[in-house]
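Supplementary Methods, section 5.1.

A reviewer requested that the exact input to the structure prediction be made available. We therefore reproduce it here, unchanged from the version used in the analyses.
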Amino acid sequence: MAVKIEESWSKVLSEEFEKDYFKQLIGFVKEEYKQHTIYPKGRDIFRAFDACPFDEVKVVILGQDPYHGPGQANGLCFSVHEGVPFPPSLVNIFKEIKNDLGREIPPNGSLEGWAQQGVLLLNATLTVRAHQAGSHQKKGWEIFTDAVITHLAKTRKDIVYILWGSYAQKKAAIVSATDNLILKSPHPSPLSAHRGFFGRGHFSKANAYLESKGLQPINW
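The structure derived from this sequence is encoded token-by-token as follows.
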């Protein structure tokens, strides 16, 4: 099955695209786009991969679902296009960056610049129905994104995995804590951010780790 995705990821995931679960998943997703309003736009489903080639991944941030409000989801977890108001989780991420690194909150919510520096902004589920959080969970996307993490974990090391919330933290079982840095905290959502998301210093810790491995830190 031909999937339009960045070349290095296409090579790494070529076998995955041929598996029955993935073919069924793509069939489901195509029907959903025909019958419902689905986010993100079709061309942005694999944008996290297109923006951050396999060999350039230095940090993985794992989200859950794409945003399900109009005009919000853009294929990069937690990110929105320029001009779109910041969703509450993104507001809290920017607040923590300010607390951690002293950087002012940026004028727009696009995280494209992070992706271009080697941050894989991956949602566990890559599509969602409008206004229905979790509507495309358990359809096969999680198997696919587990495979993505598995390929990274098997063939790459010295990567920072930033896992916010219990859903993302399940992926830690796939990753070697000896060969990588795993950072965990509650989710930045307003429902949970005050239970320990703030004050963890994940952004400065990620950069310190990258520098210790001789890698360029991220300009968060």
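The chain is about 35% helix and 10% strand. These observations are discussed further in the main text.
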